[in-house]
Amino acid sequence: MNDDVDDPAPEVRTEMAEPFEAGVVVHDLELMERFYSEALGCRAVHRSHIPKSIAAPAGLGGELRVVWLQVPSGGRIKLIRPQFDATRAGSAEPLTARRGLSYLTFPLDDVDPVVAALSAAGARPLSDPVVVQARGRRISFWADPEGNAVELVDRRGTDPGAARSGA
Predict the structure, then answer these.
(1) Is 76 helix (H, G, I), strand (E, B) or coil?
(2) What's this model's pTM, rounded to 2 decimal places?
């Protein structure tokens, strides 16, 4: 199987007006904002209360609180807290065993300090060993405090301290 894209997709004739955003439904908005800020360097750039009169017709269920976090590389994560309890993410199945959005990827210069920060912030590793060599990159998968999956990708390649791979 060739990993390169042979046939490019048709050209889309639009320009994005804002950085790409991914929405994550959470139970504890304050905990998750603190986690993504402290462990991954994201910062809150906007907060909003979405009333049911807007959220329900938009297909979002009901009243929401939303915090937009700026990712250091330019994208954004929307932490979304509905007034009802959403079902919890996470299972023993591999991340690719279910369809839909499976994880957020954070490309980094060095995963090591982030691995330490994730562990200290209450995340748990999903990969074993915690940091894995894969095609010239180092990757690490984690579950945030509410079970949402996060991938770290270190583009440095080989680990100068290859003997250590734990958190």
Answers:
(1) strand
(2) 0.77
